[in-house]
Amino acid sequence: MSIKNITVLGSGVMGHGIAQVSAMSGYNVVLRDIEQQFLDKAMEKIKWSLEKLVTKQKITLAESDAIFARITTKVDLKEAVKDADMVIEAVPEIMDLKMKVYAELDKVADSNVIFASNTSTLPITEIANTTSRPDKFVGIHFFNPPQLMKLVEVIPGQKTDPQIVQATVDYVRSVKKEPVICKRDVPGFIVNRLFIPMVHEACWLKQRQNLTLEQIDSAVKFRMGFPMGIFELADFTGMDVIHKATIELHLRDKKVIFPHPEIERLYNEKKLGQKSGEGFYKYSDEKYERVQLDEGLASKCNPIQLVANIVNNAAWLVTNKASDIEEIEKAAQLGLGLKKPIFETAREFGMKNIVSELAELAKKHGQFYEPDPLLVSMQ
C-alpha cells in the first residue's frame, strides 16, 4: 500500500503542523480549510517554522523552498482529495463537526483512500461507522506541536483492516515519529487515559489534604519523574482541552475519571492556563516563566494517591488488552515527558502500599478507586 499524496483537512495548529512534517518527509500535501484566509495564515506559519530550521542550520534554504512547494492549499473539498492516498482530518474536537466533515468527504473521496482522524479522545469506531469504509478508517493522534513531539498514537477502530493499521504505522515512521498502537478503541487511548484523570486526582488530593499547588507539583516533578508539575502541565495543555477531554472520557466510561468541579469552574471562568494568562497559576504578559518548584516543597506532599491513579489506569489498559507495559511506558515517556517508567515509580512506592491506598480510597470515595486485578497480582 503506497502512500504518496496526503490531504490534511483543517489548517489549525495540528493541521498545518501535520502538513509540514509530511512535506518535510517528501509527501505531496494538500492542505484544505473552509476559507482561503485560514489557509494563508497556516502557510505563513509553516514558512516561519521552516525559516527557523534554516536559521538553525537544520535544513538548507533550497530544502526549505522545496518543502514549502510540496504543500498546496485548496478550499474545494472534492479538488483537495482528488489525488489523495490518505486523508488526515484535523478539524476541532467536536463530534458533530467531525461527522459532518466525514459525510461530505465520503461522497467525494475515491473508495481506496484511507481516512485517518487526528483525535485525542473521540471514539474512532463511532466516527468510522458513519462512513462507507470503516475498514479503511484509523485514528492517528499527533501530539502538540506536531513539528516537535515525537509520539503518534495509532488507533484502529473495531473494523479497521490490519493492512491499514500497518500502512499508517509506516507513514508515522516515515515522518520520523514514533508510533504507539492503542490496540483497542478505548476512551482516552493511552496518554490521555493516564494524564487527564491525574489532573482531577491532583485536585482531589489538594482538597483532601489541604496542600498547595506548589507542594503537589514539586512532588510530581521530583518524586514521580514528571518534567513539570501536574498543575503546571494542565496550564500548559489548556483547561479547554482538558475540560473537553474530561466530558468525552466520562461520557464513555465512568471508571476512567473522577471529575473534580475545579476544572469546569476554571473553564467557565475562561481561566484556560498559559494561553489566557491564568489557570491554576497566574502568568505575566511577558515570556512564559516556570513555576518555582523544589525538593523542599516536594517533601511536604506524599504523592502516593497520584502514583496509584496513574498506575491503576495503566494497569487497566493492560488488563483490557488495549496495550502492554512496554508500549505504555514508551507512550508516557514520549507523550508526557516522563523521566522514569510509571511501573518503576510504583515499585518504589511499593505495590502493596499502592493497592492498600486504592482500597482505602475506594472505601471512602467509591468504586472508581478499586485497584485493577493486575496491580493486585503484582503485590
From TrEMBL:
Specify the 3-hydroxyacyl-CoA dehydrogenase NAD binding domain's residue ranges: 5-184
This protein's species is Candidatus Nitrosotenuis uzonensis
Q: Cite the GO molecular-function annotations of the record.
A: 3-hydroxybutyryl-CoA dehydrogenase activity; NAD+ binding
Q: Any idea where the 3-hydroxyacyl-CoA dehydrogenase C-terminal domain is?
A: 188-283, 306-377
A Pfam family cross-referenced in the UniProt record is: 3HCDH_N
Its domain of life reads Archaea
Q: Know the name of this protein?
A: 3-hydroxybutyryl-CoA dehydrogenase
The record's EC number reads: 1.1.1.157
Q: Which UniProt keywords apply?
A: Oxidoreductase
**What processes in GO biological process is this protein linked to?**
fatty acid metabolic process
What InterPro entries has UniProt attached to this entry?
Answer: 3-OHacyl-CoA_DH_NAD-bd, 3HC_DH_C, 6-PGluconate_DH-like_C_sf, 6PGD_dom2, NAD(P)-bd_dom_sf
The record, for Gene3D superfamilies, names: N-(1-d-carboxylethyl)-l-norvaline Dehydrogenase, domain 2, NAD(P)-binding Rossmann-like Domain
* Extent of the signal sequence: none
Q: Which top EC class applies here?
A: oxidoreductase
High-level lineage: Archaea, Nitrososphaerota, Candidatus Nitrosotenuis
